[in-house]
Amino acid sequence: MKLLKKCIVALLVVTSVFCVAPMFNNTVEAASTKKVSTKYNYSKLSNQKNYDKIPSVKKGKTIVTMKKSNAYVKFTATKTKNYKIKISNVKKPSAKSVNGYISFYTLNTSSYGYKSLKSKKVKTYGGKTDTLKLANKNFLNGWKNYGKKKTWYKKDRTAEVKLKKGQSIYFGGYFAGSSSEKATYTVEIK
Questions:
Q1: Which label site among 2, 21, 35, 60 has the fewest CB atoms less than 10 Å from its CB?
Q2: CA distance 143 to 153
Q3: pLDDT, block means (10 residues), the chain with 190 residues
Q4: What is the pLDDT of residue 60?
Q5: Which residue stretches of the chain are H helix?
Q6: In a 3-state reduction of DSSP, which class is residue 182?
């Protein structure tokens, strides 16, 4: 009888360990950072079919690699709301000091079916603009007076834009240097 009681107690202890232990497991999974590469700049958009090929970014954090200057990506709203777009961490493989801009657009389709990008104003701490000026730390250290003005260059910029469900906002940029050089930046959308 004592042996049976010991076996039952041991079984209950083992069972409770396997049932209760998962509740105390506090591991947090890191948010994944997606990567997108784009080559669709203004010259490629002269072919109307290429508008549909512009790569998309989703909500969350994405590292965008522009294979050509002024290459575009797009974000399509999943629901009607104000979206916050933070752009940061601009880099070029060939330059220690980097500055440039990201501009925002919406897709405009004429009555004849011709597509083009139309400038889109976004809210930022300096007011409304369609262009955010960005730079890396090396540029700002060399040109400190640029970093002091609200409308000039910053390491990261945040914009807010209201989009309807299914509406897309396009953004593309130029970073100083040769137009054929790659550049990367991080975009985070909430």
A1: 2
A2: 10
A3: 54 44 32 68 73 89 85 93 94 82 90 88 88 85 62 84 94 70 87
A4: 93
A5: 2-20, 137-142, 144-148
A6: coil
CA angle 23, 26, 27 (to 5 degrees): 130
**Residue 179: φ, ψ to 5°:** -70, -15
Using an 8 Å Cβ cutoff, are 122 and 159 in contact? yes
Q: pLDDT at position 149, please?
A: 56
Kindly provide the b/e burial profile for residues 11-21, where b requires at least 16 CB atoms within 10 angstroms of the residue's own CB.
eeeeeeeeeee
Could you give the residue ranges of the DSSP H alpha helices within 21-169? 137-142, 144-148
Asked whether 185 and 132 are in contact (CB, 8 A), the reply is: no
pLDDT reported for residue 24: 32
pTM: 0.74
Closest CA to 142 of 87, 98, 181: 98
